[in-house]
Amino acid sequence: MSKIEIFEPPMCCSTGVCGSSADPELLRIAELLENLKKEGIEVARYNLSSDPKAFMQSEGISNALNQRGADVLPITVVDGRIIKSEGYPTNEEVVHLLGISSDAIQPAVKVQVNKCSCSSKGCC
């Protein structure tokens, strides 16, 4: 089974999803990683401020930081290979790289969107 690791810049908490105005991209990544875990994929998420040892122990990550600085973060590693830096992978990239179905990463509860023409008097 594949392993995906995300090395992130310093954040206030381990996921970066905290405070009154959470970043939608961090919410997407948190949900994506949870769905991957449910599919049996090994997931690791490292925050530079709370887990600097992980950054030092990975030669590729350490080299990237030394050469390009912290702006290179976040870095995504799949099965030991850096596949993306300076941004989080899209859901489509993850599906392709891990060879899984896009259904595997969809939210468990789907929001129903009403497709009728709504007005102030109500819908349909």
UniProtKB/TrEMBL annotation:
Biological processes per GO annotation: negative regulation of DNA-templated transcription; response to arsenic-containing substance
Domain of life: Bacteria
Pfam hit, one: ArsD
Gene3D superfamilies for the chain: Glutaredoxin
Any one GO MF annotation of this record: DNA binding
The protein's name: Arsenical resistance operon trans-acting repressor ArsD
Organism: Anaerocolumna xylanovorans DSM 12503
